[in-house]
Specification:
about 400 residues; alpha/beta; eight-stranded mixed beta sheet; six-stranded mixed beta sheet; 14 helices; about 40% helix; binds adenosine monophosphate
């Protein structure tokens, strides 16, 4: 089956064409700067270098059409016609409480995604744009929505409720949802496989450490807690997001500085995190470099980040009554041995011991714990597109059976 995997942001479309037989990427790329000056299509057929086409891309529909044209192009295309695409898998950020699994796209599912726009105003509207664009261009092709929040729907109320009046949950859906679900699901399954265990037999802490960062406690295959909450702002200190703070800080600062809710939101989401602490960069490569050169604020930002990840690891071990494996993934988790070592320092009491030579690995699936470490530690490059393609295949098969 050939699955077109689509991940729409407000001004971008990331895409892959995946042949599920052999799970092989036929082509991938990015449409960027939609509706802006300098918009472009990047297209890499079959592992070859990206071809960049600068072209006016006023909206998502034009972007999707350009991708399809590139996929069927007679010189660089990888399929002969659009009809060879069997299904489309859409990444959708927020599925609220309605979706605990991926879902074939129907009017009911679209309404569910619309209903969540209120709590995911930056993400769900562009996800819908992508769905509408594909439906116009490929009206007869089955489509599936794969939700970032679905994997965390298994959290118990004790983990997902806030200590607010219960009516806030009932009336406004105010609760913790968690994000990066496809990534946490994929890397936990891979780690179990690397341990030679069934995922339903092990307790795994997954650390998705990129510009956005979250941890999940995956107990016997189910997410029982995760660090992001109602929005992706909660939890770890991130590239530009503050993570956990005392909520009273928000009203205090708004009053002191006389700023609006929108300005406060901008500070918490875009001017905080390791960028705000270091005053230098949100990119951990810059921070590692600066810290090694003696910049004290870069060093402080790194210390704060690694300390908070370590604290979450400890709390998730407690939440699961133990831990069998820890997995690092995403840009920082996959590539930075320096940060992995810093995070795991002091976790020997839990049975976590990193092997310094194995820990030098970058971007490759690998065990990095010492021989005999009671808790296994792994690097697993995440592959959200593959999870989307697999779910699309699974649900298309189910739809066919039920016809
Ligand atoms: P992502 O959001 O998953 O693309 O990850 C982006 C983050 O990963 C950025 O903060 C990068 O600095 C960080 N990153 C990527 N490669 C490296 C590396 N080799 N060393 C340290 N950080 C890295």
């Amino acid at each position: 089956m050939i699955v077109f995997v689509v991940n729409c942001g407000s001004s971008s479309i990331k895409y892959q064409l995946i042949n599920t037989q052999g799970e092989y990427v036929m082509a991938k790329g990015l449409v960027e700067r939609i509706g802006m000056e300098g918009s472009a299509l990047h297209y890499s057929p079959d592992g070859a270098a990206a071809i960049e086409t600068k072209v006016d891309i006023p909206d998502h529909k034009v972007g999707i059409q350009l991708i399809i044209d590139a996929l069927i192009d007679k010189d660089n295309g990888v399929i002969h016609s659009m009809d060879e695409i069997d299904a489309v898998g859409h990444r959708v950020v927020h599925g609220g409480e309605r979706f605990a699994d991926s879902a074939p796209i129907t009017p009911y599912v679209i309404q569910g995604i619309i209903d969540c726009c209120d709590i995911a105003p930056l993400h769900n509207p562009p996800n819908l744009e992508g769905i509408y664009a594909c439906q116009k261009i490929m009206p007869d092709t089955p489509m599936v929505a794969v939700f970032d929040t679905a994997f965390h729907q298994s959290m118990p109320p004790a983990a997902y409720l806030y200590g607010l009046p219960y009516e806030e949950y009932e009336n406004y859906g105010l609760r913790r949802y968690g994000f990066h679900g496809t990534s946490h699901k994929y890397v936990s399954m891979r780690a179990a496989r690397l341990m030679g265990e069934d995922v339903t037999d092990v307790r795994i802490i997954t650390c998705h450490l990129g510009n956005g960062a979250s941890l999940a406690a995956v107990k016997y295959g189910h997410s029982v807690d995760t660090s992001m909450g109602f929005t992706p702002l909660e939890g770890l200190i991130m590239g530009t997001r503050c993570g956990e703070i005392d909520p009273a800080v928000v009203t205090y600062l708004m009053e002191k500085k006389g700023v609006t809710a929108e300005e406060m939101d901008d500070e918490l989401n875009r001017r905080s995190g390791v960028l705000g602490i270091s005053g230098l960069s949100s990119d951990f490569r810059d921070l590692e470099y600066a810290a090694k050169a003696g910049n004290p604020r870069a060093e402080l930002a790194i210390d704060m980040f690694s300390y908070r990840v370590r604290k979450f690891i400890g709390s998730y071990a407690a939440a699961m009554g133990g831990v069998d494996a820890i997995v690092f993934t995403a840009g920082l988790g996959e590539n930075s041995g320096f940060m992995r070592k810093k995070i795991c320092q002091g976790l020997k009491f839990l049975g976590v011991e990193i092997d310094p030579v194995r820990n030098e690995v970058r971007g490759k699936e690998c065990e990095i714990s010492k021989e005999g470490s009671r808790v296994k530690v792994f690097v697993v490059p995440t592959n959200e597109e593959l999870v989307i393609a697999r779910d699309t295949l699974r649900l298309c098969r189910r739809m066919r059976r039920n016809k």
